[in-house]
Amino acid sequence: MPYIVAVDIGGTFTDLAACDLETGQLRLAKCPTTYGDFGKGIFECFAKADIAPRDTELVKHGTTLVINALLQRSGARTALLTTRGFRDVLEIGRGNRTQPFDLRFRRDPPLITRDLRLELDERIGPDGQVRKPLDDGELDAVADRLKAAGIEALAISFINAYANPAHEQRTAKRLAELLPGVYISTASELSREWFEFERTATVAANAFVGPQTSSYVRKFEGDLRSGGFEGSLLLMGSHGGVMAASRAEHEPIALVESGPVGGSIGAAAYAQPLGFANLIAFDMGGTTAKCALIENGQYAVESTYYVGGFLRGFPIRGNVIDIVEVGAGGGSIAAVDSQRRMNVGPRSAGSTPGPVCYGKGGVEPTVTDANLVLGRLNAEQFLGGEMRLDEAGARRAIADRLAVPLGLSGSDSETRAAQGVVTIANLTMTEAIKQISIARGLDPRDFALFCYGGGGPLHAAELARELSIPHVVVPPEPGNFSALGMLLANARLDTVRTLLADLDTGSLASLSTMFAEVERTSRDALLHEFGIGAVGFERRVEMRYKGQKHSLRIALPEALEPLVLRAQFDTAYQHRYGHSRPGAAVEIVGVLSTASLDIRRPKLSDLAIARGKSGKSGPAGTRQVYFLETGGYLETAIHVRAHLPVGFSSHGPAVIEEYGSTTLVGPRDTFSIGSLGEIHIDCSK
Amino acid sequence: MTAPNDPGSASACPGPTLAVDPLTVEVIRRRLVSISDQVDLNITRTAYSPLVYEYKDYAVGVVDAQGRLLSQCTSGMPLFVADVLGAAVRDGLEIYGRDGLHEGDIVITNHGGTIGQHLNNVVMYTPVFDPQTRELAAFFLVTLHWLDVGGRVVGSLSKYATDIFQEGIQFHTVKLRSRGEPVAEIYRMIRANTRFPEEVMGDIDAQIGGCLMGRDRLAELIGRYGLATFRASISCIWDQSEAVARAAIAAIPDGTYDASAFLDNDGLNAGERIPLSVKVIISGDSMTFDLSALPLERASTMNAGRSGGGQSVARLAFRYLLIPFEDANEGSYRPLDLVLPEGTVMSAGPNAAKGHYNLALPTLIDLVIRALGTAVPDKAAAGHYATFSTIRFVGKQPGSGALFQCSDSGFGGWGALCDADGPGPFRTMCHGDTRSIPIEVQEASYPIEIDSYAIRTDSGGAGQFRGGPGLSKSYRVQVPCMLFSTFDRTECPPWGLNYGLEALPGAVTIQGPDGKISSALKENVQLAAGTRVVVETGGGGGFGDPRLRDPQRIEADVRLGYISRESAEQVYGLRLDEKP
Is residue B472 situated within a structural domain? Predict the structure, then answer.
C-alpha cells in the first residue's frame, strides 16, 4: 500500500494490473467483462487481486466503451447544428469509394440523421473574419426545435470555425442555458484544423458518446469513492497519456483507442532501460495483430482515425496513437476458395466458438489450430492448463478443409497445410510491420521487435527473420501487457492548430507566439486537472513543399532559423519518400503541441515478478516442433518461463511457456533473460 | 515465412508450366499488390496537384517484359485499369527494343496514338531487371494527370480543340532519365510547355519516386524467388484469375444483350445528339463487347483512342459486373473480346482531339450494365449520373496576381439495386477512391465563397428502391475569372431499371451580379466578380415500380428530405398525413 491500479476493459476480459508503491509488488487479475455494468467486472478484479479501493492512490482506466458505442451505434439521441447550407456535410463525407468496382459500395450511415441536422444563419470567412453575424434570436428558435426533438446531445460545427471559434462558443453557451441537461460539444474545442467534414464527424461522434461516457465515468468514480477511494481517477487517452476524468467527460472521443494504447506505452517505457532507441511494438491477439512504432523511445501519434475502419468508416480528428491493425490473430480462419487459393483471416472465430481446438463448436481451422498441429502450442498447458486443447480435432479440420481442397496428399499433408496457414498469417503480419516501418520511410532492420499479446511471442522470431530484424524482446506478462503498460502512462495533453504560412522569419515568429499561447493554456489545464507538477512541452510543426497537400511533422529545433528548419524538413522528406526537393518552396501548415506532466508510476524493475529462484533453470522437457525455417520438425527444448532466472541464456530451437503466452525461439536463434525479466531473442545469425 | 519450400506434389497450376507451390504463388500475388499499394500511398503523399492527391487521377501498375498486366494498385483511378499501361510499354519496346532499355531509364509517353486519352495523362515507367540474371523481367509504371501540358487554355482542356495539336505537347516515348541520369533537354522542354512548371515538376518527382520505389521492391521480390519461379507464379495467377472470370460469365444465361442511350452533344455542336449503343454477347464462359455501332470520331474533343477508350470501357464494365472484388490482371480479361472497328469515338486516330476523351465513358460502362440488367438483375444497378460534371474556375489571385485553377467536379447519385436504394453521392464509375476537396480548403486557397453544399431533394430516381441523390453546390466568385464546365446527360437522364424511374440530370446555372441567369453545361465563359454559379449533379435511377416501395421508407424519405411531399404523393402514390 498504496497502490497504483490500471484497469483495461476489453471485449472478452477485464484486466487489472496494480503496483504497490512501497514494496513495488505487482499484482495482476483477469475477470470476464461484465456487459451492462462494466464496473462490476472491475470491482471483481479488485477483489481477485485483493486490493481495496481505499488503498489506491491512482486508478488508470482504459476502456473500449467509446469505440463500442460508436460501432454499435448505441450512443445518445444526438442533433447537429451547422452553418446554413452545410447540414449535409456530415452525410456527404468525401464521396470516395474505397472499393472501386463494387456497385453496392456504401459507407456506414452517419451518426446523426438528416432530420436532426439543423442550420443556423452565421458565417466566418477562411481568414477568421465574421461574414455574417450570429443572431441571438435565431438561437432561441433553434433551442425550441431541439427541445421538441427530444435530444440528449448536441454537436455544433460551423464552417471555418477552425479559424475563429467565437460563433461556436457563443452558440454553445447560449444553448447550454436554454437546453439544461443536454450534452453539448463544439467542433472547434476538439479540433482547430481545417477540413469541415472531418471536424464535424469528430464532434458528432463526441456528442454521440458523451452522455453515456460521462455518466459511466461519474458512476464508476462514485462507486470507487463509496469504497473509500480518495485518489484520482484517470482515463487512458488514445494519444497514450492519461487524462483527468473531468476532461474525459468533456472529450470522450479522446478515448476511442483507449484500450490498445496500453501496449504501446509499455513498449515505449521499456525502450530506454533496455537500450533500444527504436522498437516495433507488436501485439497479436485473437482477432487482429497490431503494430506501432517506438522511435527514440516515443510512440507516434496520427491525427486522423477511422471509426469502423478506413473502408467504410468515418474519420475523427485528434491524436490517436499510430497503430496498424491487420486481420491476423490466433482465431483467424483459414479457408481455400474454388481456385485453390488459401486465405487466412480477416474472418475470425473470435473467442466463441473460437479455434477448433478449443472444443467449443468451432469447425473452421484457425491459426491457433495450425500452431497446435505444428507442435508450437502445448495442448496441456494452454492458459496454464486451465484449458485443454483438442489436437485431433484441429488436425482433422486442417486435413478436411485445407489439405484436401489444396490437393495436398501424403502423410505430411496436414503439416504442410498447417505450415501454409502460419506462413500466410505471418505474411499478413509482416505486411503490417512493413506498413508501419517501410511505408513510413523506415527500415525495420533498425528496430527491435517488441512483442506481446497471446500470440505475439509465438510468431515474433519468424517475423523478425522474415524482415531481417535482428532482435526480439518479450516483456514480462505479455498476456497482460496492455494493462501493465497503462500503469506506466503519464498525463498528456495534445493541441493541434492550423497555421498556413510560408516558411520565413515572420512566420516563425507567429509560430512561437502560437506555441506560447497553446502551452500556457495546456499548462493551466494540466495543473488544474492534476494539481502541482512540472509540465514539459514538445513542439512539432507540420510542413510541406508549397503546393503539396500532405505534410510531415518535424520536431521544432532549438534555433528557430528558417534555413535550419528547412534543412530538417528536406532530410525528413528524403528519409521518408526517397527523394526531396531542396529547391522548392516550403510552407508551414500547422503546429502540434504536446504537454505532459509526470505522475506517480511504478518502476520497471518492480514489474519483473520474482522468478527463477526456486525452480530449476534447465528445460522442463522436449517435444517435436515444426519450424518454417527448416521446413520440418525438430526436437525442441521446452522451458517454463517462471523458472528461468535473470541472466539465463540458451539457444534454439526452444519453446518458452507461461500463462497466457508461448514464445518460440528459432533453430538458429539464441535467447537470454534480461534484468527486467524480459526475454531477448537474437535472430541476427 | 522463409525461403520457398520444396514444391512437392501439389501445384497450384498443374500443366506445362513449372510446378509452383500454391503458397509461393499466394505470397507473390499478395506482394505484387502490396508493392503497388505502397507506391500509391507515397504518390498521394508527395504529389503537388489536387488532381493527384485528392482526385487520384493516377494509377500504379506492374506489367511483364511484354507489357502484360501483372497487378495494379487497389485505389487510384479505375479508368487506367485498361490496357493503357501495357500499350505504353509495348510502344516503348517497339521503339527502343529490349536492348535499348537499361537500368535507371525512365520513359514517359502521352502520345495520342498510343494512350488515346487527353495529353495530361502521362504514363511513366522504368524497366525492372532480375537481380541474378540481369534479364528484363518487368516494368513498373505510374500514370499521372499533369496539371497542364500547354495547348489553347489553362489546364490544356478546351472544348474548342479540333485536333490534338491544339491540346498541348506530345511526348511520344522519350527518356526522362537515361541510366539514372536526368535528360536535361526533356526537362527543359517540359518546363517550357506547361503553365504550372513548379507543380508539374513536383508531380514528376512524385511520379519518379514511385517508379523507383516500385522497381526496387519488385526486383527484391524477383531476386528472392528467382525469375523462373516468379514467371511460373504469374502464369498461375493469370490462370486462376481467368478461371474466376470465366466462372462468373458462365453464370449469366447465353444470349445477346444490348442497350443504348445518347449524349447531349460533343461540346462543339449544340443540339447534335451523340447516340451510344453497346452489344454484349455471352456465350458459355466468354463474353464479347461489340461497340461497332458507335459513331465515327468527331472534330471535337470527345474522342478516345482504342486503348484509353474502347478497351477501358470493356475492362471497367467487366470488372463492375463480374469480378468486383478480384485484383485484376491479364488473366482476368482473357475471356473478354472487344469488337471495335478503327475510327470511332472510342477508337479514334492519333490526331483526333481527346481533351474530353472521358465524356462518353461512364455512360458506356453503364450501358453494359444496363444491357445485362434483365439477365442478371442481382448484379446490375440502374443508371448512375454518368457525367464527369467538372467545373474549373481559372483566374488571378487578388493579392499576388498569380494564376489559379480551382478544379472541382461533381459527385452524383448511383443507381438503385434490386434490393437496396442507390448509394452516393459518389464520383462516376470511372473514378474510385476519389475525394472531394473540402470547402474550407477551397475558400482558403481561391477567391471563391461557397454558400451551400447539400443533398438535392428528389434527384434520385423513384422506384421500389430509390436512386442515390445528387448534390447542389453554390459558388460565388470574388474576382473575375473563367469558368470551364463539362456536364452531359441532361437530355437522356440516368435511367431506371425494371420499372424504376429516371433520375434528375445535372445542371449548371450562372447568376450574374446583374441578376441575369444562364445555363452553362459545356461552357468556357468569363464570369464577373460577384457571379454565383450553382452546380447540381444528377441522381441515380430507381429500381422497381415506385408504387411497390415500402410506405415506411417513403415516409422516412419525406421526413429526411430526400424526397418531397409532392413526389411522395404524385410519384409514389402515398397519401401522407398533414403533419410534416
Answer: yes
The string of DSSP codes covering A76-120 is --EEEEEETT-TTHHHHTT---SSTT-TT--PPPPSS-GGGEEEE
C-alpha span between A609 and B463 (Å, rounded): 67
Q: In what order do the strands lie in the sheet with A661-665?
A: A621-627, A632-640, A654-658, A661-665
Confidence at B82, pLDDT banded by 50, 70, 90:
low
pLDDT at B55 over 90: no
Q: Dig out the grid coordinates for B63 from the structure.
A: 506489367
**Number of domains, chain B:** 2
Q: Is the Cβ of A378 closer than 8 Å to some Cβ of chain B?
A: no
Fold of A76-208: Rossmann fold (3.40.50)
ipTM score for this prediction: 0.92
Average pLDDT value for residue range A74-102: 95
Q: Tell me: the pLDDT tens digits for A464-487?
A: 998 889 999 999 989 889 899 999
Structural domain A3-70+214-255, CATH architecture: 2-Layer Sandwich (3.30)
Out of B210, B242, B274, a domain closes at B242
**Selecting from 2.60.40, 3.30.1490, 3.40.1620, 3.40.50, what CATH number does the domain A491-597 have?**
3.30.1490
pLDDT, position B3 = 38
Same domain, B237 and B385: no
A11 confidence band (pLDDT: 50, 70, 90): low
A125 close contact with B: CB closer than 8 A: yes
Chain B residues in contact with A426 (beta carbon < 8 A): 1
Q: Is A605 exposed, middle or buried (0-12, 13-18, 19+ CB in 10 A)?
A: exposed
Check pLDDT > 80 for residue B23: no
Any B CB within 8 A of A91 CB: yes
- Burial annotation B505-537 (CB, 10 A radius, 16+ → b, else e): bbbbebbeeeeeeeebbbbbeebeeebbbbbbb
Distance CA A89, CA B455 (A): 9
C-alpha A104, offset from chain centre: 31
**First-to-last C-alpha distance (Å) of chain A:** 46
Chain A hits for B200, Cβ within 8 Å: none
Tens of pLDDT, residue by residue over B369-409, are 999 988 999 889 999 999 999 999 999 999 899 999 998 98
pLDDT tens track for A583-629? 888 999 888 899 988 887 888 877 776 454 444 567 889 999 999 98
Domain residue spans in chain A?
Answer: 3-70+214-255, 76-208, 261-328+426-487, 491-597, 606-682
Q: Domain A261-328+426-487's class?
A: alpha beta
- Residue A588, beta-bridge partner list: A501, A543
B46, A548: Cβ pair inside 8 Å?
yes
Q: Which range marks the domain in which residue B160 is found?
A: 22-242
Listed residue (B336, B213, B357) closest to B283, CA to CA: B336
Quick check: A31 and A48 in contact, CB under 8 A? yes
Q: Of B44 and A118, which is predicted with more confidence? A: A118
Strand pairing category for B58-64 and B136-145: antiparallel
B440 vs A160: CB contact, 8 Å cut-off? yes
Q: Does A653 touch chain B (CB under 8 A)?
A: no
B489 occurs within a structural domain: yes
Contact check, Cβ <8 Å, A628/B2: yes
Q: What is the pLDDT of residue A80?
A: 98
Residues 412-441 of A with CB under 8 A from B: 416, 419-420, 423-424, 426-427, 430-431, 434-435, 438-439
Q: Could you tell me if A583 lies within 8 Å of chain B, comparing CB atoms?
A: no
Q: Give domain status of residue B152, yes or no.
A: yes
Same fold across A3-70+214-255 and A491-597: no
Structural domain includes residue B424:
yes
State pTM to two decimals: 0.89
Identify which of B384, B364, B379, B363 has the alpha carbon closest to the alpha carbon of residue B500.
Answer: B384
